[in-house]
Amino acid sequence: MTAESTVPPPTGQQPRAAERSVSVLAPRGPAAGRRLPAGRRESRPRRACWVTLPLVDGCAALLGVLVVPGAPRYPLVIALLTLGVIGLNRRARLYDGSVVRGVLDELPAVCGRIAAGWAGVGVLSPLRPLPPAVLVTAFAVHCAAACSGRAAVHGRRARRRRPDPALVVGPVAAARKVAAALLRQPGCGVRPVGVVGDPLDVLARSGEGPELPLLTTDQEARRAVIQNGVETVLVVGAATRVEKTALLRDLAAYGCVVWELDAEAPSYGLGGRREGAGHLAGFPRRLLCPGRGRRRVGVGKRVLDAVLSGSLLLLACPVLLVCAAVLRGMDGPGVLFRQERIGKDGRPFTLLKFRTHRPASAHEAATRWSVANEQEMSRFCQFLRRTSLDELPQLWNVCRGDMSLVGPRPERPYFVAKFSQTYPGYRERHRMPTGITGLAQIHGLRGDTSIEDRCRFDNAYIDNWSLWQDICILARTAVLFVRPTGS
C-alpha cells in the first residue's frame, strides 16, 4: 500500500545530489566541527548472529548427556539441561554480541553455570542411581565442548569483526581525549564517529583531539545514530549521565548499548564485579543501558515475513504473470518500476512496483509524490493502483529482507530529508524495517493525508510492537483488499 499522494514537493526546490541519501546533520558554522559528509553513510558493522552461541551451548549439552549410559531414555533431562544452561547464560549476558570477550575471560562463568545445570538435573530420579564418576565425566565433556565451541565462534567473530561506530557523550575536551585513545586502539572494537557536547563549551572545540563531528543538540545526536548505524554510546563522567538522561534513554530505545567511562581516575577495583563492568581501551566502564530496542523484534518478525511473503509469492504467481503480460502488451518493455527508498536505520534500497505510469524525467520521479497527468493513465493501470495490485512485486523486497510485511511505508531520500526537518518524529520511523502495510495505512492514512498523523501512528506501532499486532494489521489489510480504496 503506497504512501504516495498527488501534492507537489513540499518546498518546490530542485533536488541536490547530496539529497540522494539521508543527510542527518544540518549545515553548521565553521566553529561547530567537521560535519559528516552529506550523501554518504558509514557502512553498518557486521552484526554477530545471536543464535550461534546458544546453538553451541545446546550441542555441548547434548554431547555431555550422551556420555551417560542409556542417554536416549532421558529426553526430559536433555531438554531441561539445555534450556537451563542457555537460560543461565542469557541472564549473565554471555550472548551479548556488543561485548568483546575471549574464551578465557568467560571460562569461569560458563563452567559455573554448566555445573549449576548438572546439579539441578542430578537430583532427578532417573540420574540418582548413576555413579558420581559418570556425572563428573559428563560434566567435564560438557564443559570442554562448550568452551571449545565458544572459542571457535569468538575467534571467527574476531577475524571478521569491524569496529562498531560509537558516539562519545560528555565535556568536549574529555570526550575528545577518550575518542583519540579509542582510535589509537582499533582492536578494542569501537570506532568513535562523533562527539556529543555542550554547545556553550566553545573553548574546548579548538582543543587537541580527532576531528570528529561535534553534535551540540539531542536532535543531531539522534540523527547521527540513524545515519551511521551507531549501536554503542560512551558516556564520559557520571555528571554527564545525569544531565543527558533523556537523550540516553532515547538512544537506548534506538537499540544503542550505553556505557559509562571513567576518563580521569583509575577505578582501583571499584565496581569490578558489577554486571557489565570491565574496561575499554584501558578506561574503566560500567553498563548503563543494555539496548535491546533494535534486536527484540528481529527474529519473530523476520520469520513471519519470510514464511508469508514466500507463500504469497507462490500463490500470486499467476496474477503477477497476467499483470506483467498486460502491461507489456499495452506500454512495451519495462513492466517493473524501480525506485530508491529509505529503509531501516536510513539504509537505501530499491523498491519494486508494477509500472502504472512513466515519469517525464528522473527529477520528476524523485521530487514529486506522483507524476503529472496521472489521470491519463489507462484503465488497467488505474485498476492496479486502486486495488494495490501494483504493490505485489514488493513481496520480493520482503523476501530479500529490504522490507517487512508490516511497518512504516518507505519514502524517497528527497522527502525523507525534507520531512525529517519539518515533522517531529519522522526520523524515528526508521527504527523499524519499513513495510508494505502498517498501522497508519489501516487507519486510512494513504494518499493525500497528513504526514504528521502518519508519523504518530508509525511511532505508536514501533513503541508497542508485538508479533500479534503484526498479525492483526495483516488481517485488517486483507479486509481492505476486499473493499479497495486506492493507493
TrEMBL record:
Stretches assigned to the Bacterial sugar transferase domain: 301-481
Q: Which GO terms describe its cellular component?
A: membrane
List where in the cell it is found.
Answer: Membrane
Q: One matching Pfam family, short form?
A: Bac_transf
Segments of skewed composition (Low complexity): 25-36
The organism's superkingdom is given as: Bacteria
Tell me the GO molecular function terms.
phosphotransferase activity, for other substituted phosphate groups
Residue ranges of region Disordered? 1-40
Q: Has the keyword Transferase been applied to this entry?
A: yes
Membrane topology recorded in Swiss-Prot or TrEMBL: Multi-pass membrane protein
Provide this UniProt record's keywords sorted from A to Z.
Membrane, Transferase, Transmembrane, Transmembrane helix
Q: What is this protein called?
A: Exopolysaccharide biosynthesis polyprenyl glycosylphosphotransferase
Query: What is the native source organism of this protein?
Result: Streptomyces guryensis
Q: Taxonomically, what lineage is the organism? A: Bacteria, Bacillati, Actinomycetota, Actinomycetes, Kitasatosporales
